[in-house]
Design goal:
Number of strands: 0
CATH superfamily of the largest domain: MetI-like
CATH topology of the largest domain: MetI-like fold
CATH architecture of the largest domain: Orthogonal Bundle
Radius of gyration: 22 Å
Number of helices: 13
Order of helices and strands: HHHHHHHHHHHHH
Helix content: over 70%
CATH class of the largest domain: Mainly Alpha
Distance between the termini: 20 Å
Length: 273
């Protein structure tokens, strides 16, 4: 009987510190200065919104694809290691999440700067004629975001790969299956739910990323979150900023329910709901 009430503190916390402030902010999109849809009309009619939306999706898709390839390979390699070594690597991967986001982005500014080790090395190798800054472009943004988000791809993918029965792979080998066939017909399909979970996490986090595009990107990499920051801090137009936020939340909700209909909630939370 007591266990039935355990969910109340958690629900109260979510309502008080998440639903109420986010809901109050989103309501500004239709209540500022009064009941109106002018913010959404201005949003969809403006060129800046569509350009920034295209930038947001292009960067998010690129980051997700790169993380999917690298994360799957890393997860596959960790799954082949002995348990102590695998656990040690997983701990190191998780620990990177604890490092300050600003610290990691400023570190990339040092590495990609004109006097950074990357530019200096490229000049030494004869690829560049002189030292050149590699900052303030889309490649720098993608690189910084992949560095931050790759753990969110590795962990669920590793869990899915680790759950595959090794006897299945040995059976494929004994039946004469080529490595490419084992990968395409057994390994990849069975690890797909974990890979899809990682893609969902990385893509949705990429949609709302602000710090990395703002620090490492330029004007050509303006995203929706950067436009929201301008509207709030410079234009003081909370209603218009809330309209941007509503679009991002709507996109995230569509992705979430699409994932739910395909894989179910048990894959996302690690248990059957």
């Amino acid at each position: 009987m007591v266990r039935r009430w355990f969910w109340i503190p958690g629900l109260g916390f979510l309502v008080l510190f998440f639903l109420l402030p986010v809901g109050a902010f989103l309501l500004q999109s239709v209540l500022d200065p009064g009941p109106t849809f002018m913010h959404f009309e201005r949003l969809f009619e403006g060129r800046a919104f569509w350009v920034s939306l295209g930038n947001t999706f292009r960067i998010s898709i690129t980051v997700t694809l790169i993380c999917a390839v690298i994360g799957f390979l890393i997860a596959l390699r960790i799954a082949t290691l002995q348990r102590p070594y695998a656990n040690a690597l997983l701990v190191l991967i998780v620990m990177t999440v604890w490092i300050s986001l600003l610290v990691r982005n400023y570190a990339w500014m040092v590495l990609l700067g004109r006097e950074g080790i990357i530019s200096t090395s490229l000049v030494a190798l004869g690829i560049f004629e002189r030292k050149t800054s590699l900052l303030f472009n889309e490649a720098a943004v993608v690189l910084g975001m992949v560095h931050v988000l790759i753990p969110y791809m590795i962990i669920p993918t590793y869990a899915a790969v680790q759950a595959i029965d090794p006897a299945l792979l040995r059976a494929c080998d004994s039946l004469g299956a080529r490595p490419a066939q084992v990968f395409s017909r057994v390994l990849l399909p069975l690890s797909l739910p974990g890979l899809a979970t990682g893609c969902l996490l990385v893509f949705t986090l990429s949609l709302g990323f602000y710090v990395t595009p703002a620090i490492l990107g330029g004007r050509g990499q303006t995203t929706l979150t950067m436009l929201m920051e301008i509207e709030v801090n410079e234009q003081l137009n909370w209603g218009f900023a809330a309209a941007h936020a509503a679009v991002l939340i709507a996109i995230t909700a569509v992705l979430f329910f699409a994932y739910r209909s395909k894989f179910g909630m048990d894959r996302l939370w690690g248990q059957e709901l």
